[in-house]
Design a protein that fits this description.
By secondary structure, this protein is α/β, with parallel strands linked by helices. It folds into 2 domains: 185 residues, P-loop containing nucleotide triphosphate hydrolases (Rossmann fold, 3-Layer(aba) Sandwich); 66 residues. Helices cover 40% and strands 22% of the residues. The chain has a 6-stranded mixed β-sheet with strand order 6-7-8-3-9-10, with helices on both faces. The protein has a 4-stranded antiparallel β-sheet with strand order 2-1-4-5, covered by helices on one side. It binds adenosine-5'-diphosphate and magnesium ion. The site of magnesium ion has 2 residues, from helix 1.
């Protein structure tokens, strides 16, 4: 089965070997059909971890691999959705979604069909002709997600894609993201600072503690799958199990100290 793996990965920025590690001994495997969220304080290395998985940067030690082969750079099977939408504002919504397909050499008719399909999947079928600058923040993020999925990626890597949205739009986006994840059969990696978002969406949530970034807790979850099976989202989020898991994650985030040696001293 296709999987994207980080094995005993450490990361230092720059060439100074004495510089503190940003990530230390991270092992994480994402399979298609899984949804892993990474939460942790600002500066704990979440974006660095996603950039390693995307192939934008290489680890200082350890291995990043996909389907058993080393990852040596970005690739179309790993689509990325950024925190700030990375759309071309003067181009139409449809052109933005179709752009990666154009770059991949797909014929015009095929890329139009595919782009229209994913625009409909994110509820923007009527907006294809508009320039991106006319859309709201939530709509832009939906265009970014449609663009990512249009290339049929095996993995969808998202760095706080909903961070700038208001609470109501976020809740709607959660339900949409779960449906898109199911429809795409991709493995999803989501960086977020919202514990509730992570719990509701994921098949497992990983806590990253800072200084150096390391995994301190992995929490398996099934609320997203139960939502997709028809259960009521508000009832799921008020279950005792959900609230207990939220407290475990919040404690793990609170306990992570900047430097474990400083605590020991
Ligand atoms: N390109 C870079 N060069 C040097 N240091 C960086 C770079 N990117 C991030 N860092 C540092 O690495 C640490 C982790 O950053 P980041 O991965 O962005 O964390 P997070 O996304 O959890 O906030 C921070 O201390 C940050 O300053
Ligand atoms: Mg970040």
């Amino acid at each position: 089965m296709t999987q994207l793996s980080l094995s005993q990965v450490s990361l230092h920025y720059g060439s100074d070997p004495g510089a503190p590690a940003v990530l230390q001994d991270i092992s994480l495997t994402l399979r298609r059909g899984e949804f892993i969220s990474v939460i942790g304080r600002s500066g704990s290395g979440k974006t660095s971890l996603l950039n390693l998985a995307a192939g934008f940067i290489a680890p200082s030690a350890g291995r990043v691999s996909m389907a058993g082969r080393p990852v040596s750079g970005p690739g179309p099977e790993r689509a990325v959705v950024f925190q700030e939408d990375a759309l071309l504002p003067w181009k139409s919504v449809l052109e933005n979604v179709a752009l990666p397909l154009k770059l991949a050499g797909m014929a015009r008719a095929g890329r139009r069909d595919k782009a229209l399909h994913w625009l409909a999947a994110v509820g923007l079928e009527d907006q294809g002709g508009k320039p991106v600058w006319q859309l709201s923040g939530g709509q832009r993020q939906r265009v970014g997600i449609a663009r990512a999925l249009a290339a049929d990626p095996a993995f969808l890597l998202m760095d706080e894609p909903l961070g700038a949205l208001d609470a109501m739009t976020r809740d709607q986006m959660h339900e949409l993201l779960l449906r898109l994840w199911r429809a795409s059969h991709a493995g999803a990696l989501l960086i977020t600072h919202s514990v509730e978002e992570a719990l509701f969406l994921s098949t497992s949530v990983v806590v990253l503690a800072p200084g150096p970034g390391r995994i301190t807790l992995t929490e398996p979850c099934s609320w997203g799958r139960r939502f997709l099976a028809g259960e009521d989202p508000r009832a799921l989020k008020s279950e005792a199990g959900f609230i207990l898991a939220r407290e475990r994650l919040l404690s793990a985030i609170r306990e992570g100290r900047d430097d474990p040696r400083a605590v020991a001293a």
